Amino acid sequence: MKELIGRLTGAYGPSGREDEVRRLIAGELEGHVDGCRTDALGNLIAWKGGPGPRIMLAAHMDEIGFMVTHVDENGFARYAVVGSMDHQVLLGQRVVFPGGRMGVIGSERVEKPEEMKHEKLFIDAGAGAGVGVGDVAVFHRPLEESGCRLVAKAMDDRVGCAILVEVGRRLTSAPNQVFLVFTAQEEVGLRGARTSAYGIGPDCGVAVDVTDTGDTPKARTMEVSLGKGPAVKVMDTYLMCHPGVRRALEESAAAAGTPFQREVLERGGTDAGAIAVTREGVPAGVVSIPTRYIHTPSEMVDYADVEGAVALLLAFVSRPLDLS
Ligand code: CO
Ligand code: ZN
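^ thats the input. predicted complex w/ zinc ion below
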C-alpha cells in the first residue's frame, strides 16, 4: 500500500484537473468493483456489494496548487492559490506544471517579514517558459519514508484515496451497497462531494480525509496524535457528525481491533460537511488520518494509522448498517 500511496501522491491533480489521479485509481480498481462511472464534475464513483442500504465513502482526489495569473517578459509568473496555502511555507519550493515543466518559488525583497504575502512571490519557471495564464502548478516532492512515518505532498487527500482503493480491493462481500467516491474540487469548496452525493442519494456518508494534530512542540491544543490510530470525528467547522454514524464507526474500530481517537477540529472541514446537507439530509461522519504539516509540501502521516483506517472502514461497510 505504501507503493500505491507513493504513486497517488506523486500524481498531478489540482482542483478541477483530477484526470491523472482519476485514471490511476480507475486502473487500480479494475476487476475489484461491480461498476464505475465519472460524473460531470469529474468525480469517480465505483460501487460494490449490496443490495442493502447505500453507504457512500468519499475521499478527494484534488490537491492545492498555483494558477498562473500573469507572466512577465522575463518569464516570472504570478499566481492565484487554488485552495488555501500559507505563503510562509513557499520560498524556495519546487513546483511542477503538467507536462513536467519545473518552477521554483522566489520572492521580491521585503523590508519586514510581515510584508510578505502571496503577491510578493512568483514562480520562476525558466526563461521563455511554455507557461501561460490559467496553467496550474503543484508542489513537486516525492514520497519519503522516515521510520513508521510517510511524508509527501498531496497526502491530503491521496492517502484517503489509497485507503478507499484498498477497501475496494479487500472487500469480499457486504450486506450494504458500498459506493467508493473519489471526489473532485474539495479544496475549493467541497464541490464534487455535493454533486456525487446528490446523484447517489446515500443512506449514510463517511468522508476519509486528513486532520490536524496537537502533538508537536507548542501546538494548538488538540487531542489527536500521530500513531494512535485513525480518528473518528465529532465536529468540525462544517459538520456535526451524526451520533449514530459516529457510534457505528467507533464500534467498527473495536470490532476490527484497531485503536482510534476522537477528533474535534476547530478550523476546517471535509466532504462530509457537503454530503450531510445534500437532498433532505444524510447521516454523515468522518474517519480522519492524523497528519502534520497539512497544506505544505511535506504532509506527514503514520503508516499504522493508515492501516487502522482500512481495517475500521472494512468492518464498518461489512456490518449491517445501524444508525440508532
Ligand atoms: Co486540504
Ligand atoms: Zn483534504
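Residues 2-63+153-318 form a domain with the Aminopeptidase fold (CATH 3.40.630.10).
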